[in-house]
Amino acid sequence: MSLDFPLFRPHPLIRGGHLQTIVGSYWPGQASAAGGKHQVFLADGDAIVLHDDGSEQWQPGGPIAILVHGLGGSHESGYMQRCSARLRARSVRVYRMDLRGCGAGIALARHPLNAGRSEDVAAALAYVVQQCPDSPVHLVGFSMGANIVLKLAGELGGDAPPRLASIMAIAPPLDLVACSRNMQRGLNRLYDRSFVRGLVDHVRRRSLLVPDAHNRPLVPVPRRLVDFDNMFTAPLSGFADVNDYYTRASSAPLLANIAVPALIVAAASDPIVPVRSFEQASYSGTTRLVIAPCGGHLGFIAAAGLDPDRRWLDWRVVDWVTSHSRKPVTQTLPGNSEAAAQSAGCQR
Question: Rounded distance, CA 172 to CA 189, Å?
Fold first, then answer.
């Protein structure tokens, strides 16, 4: 089935990558109705939570989407709630996944989350396929969740479950080393510090709720994400150090192995994920890449257009899941990313 995405045109007052990112996180949107909760047990004894939002129009055998949030997020993240509501209105049953130790599952995990936990998404996928064996299932990941989804698809290769109909990855940090370096530049440091503050608070809260959780003292308190990952995430996840962690958890080396229909959506103006990581990656023949000149990180607040509202990204999720197209989408990145950003009036 053909899939033609309308060109993303930024809101006339929200043109920069930073503005798109920040305003996009606060711009009001539709919330998802609360659904049932499913605990999915993992091989190491931890558990994750899936929030089954259902759909009044959904029938057995109908399409299902599993939404996977990013770093610092949960099933309650705005993009998770909005996309769930919009997909359910199109008769898609939605499961919002809390990654390990996040959201409703914070007290269910002794081991920490990391950006390469593809086995957790694999467990969620297997659970949903078992519950709904006749339904096509779509994995939709956002930011870090997008990297995990891509990593899983690359690891599965041609052995992906027949019911995995497609994957969609939005703003994936597919090269974690490059992302770490990018967040040390200029104003990008603000996002780096925000992530670290949230993670440190999360570790402290988790320590109170899970006394036997695998833990390490955060002394001195890290100020950069790379320091947090070197002190906490890498050693507690079995990696030699932060460089080993970032290298092995990145999805970029596995993208060429993806065998299911896959779509990657990103922005050249993303202040967290550098566009060069997309330009340098190798992709499988089933993978489509859409890089908008502007949009920031999970922003994509658009000028008035053909969509029902200004949340361009949300409607592309609906388009992809409901059409599961195999045909290339039309918007691609010109050879010079800076020229592309300028042509849309978007400043980084």
Answer: 18
